[in-house]
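Handout, page 2. Input:
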Amino acid sequence: MLIKHSKDVLEPFFECRSIEETYEKVPSISIDYALMEKADKIYTIKADFVWSDVGNWKSLEELGVENSPNSVLINSKAFVQTTKPTIVIGLEDVIVVETENGILVAKSTELEKIRAALSKLESTM
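Output:
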């Protein structure tokens, strides 16, 4: 199916030598657009389970993912995912996330600006 409908998505997996190179060459496209909307034999099965199209950190909080056990919140409402001890004091609707590449601190209402911020950061490095 991918060969027929989205060859450009599949090719990097065979052409590239590393996962980093593959990731750079695979187009940023949803599975819905790349494959599902073009497929002619799609079937669905009724199921009873909780579903969330997890699109951001706020979604994880809504699904009940708990704050890191090494975080302390004082007079705050925040979602914290870090490996280091983290203290949040007096902040509302804040997301604090640590990855191996950096730390994100953002208002939950500003998460759509992450991509632009990352582009700006990459241009300074």
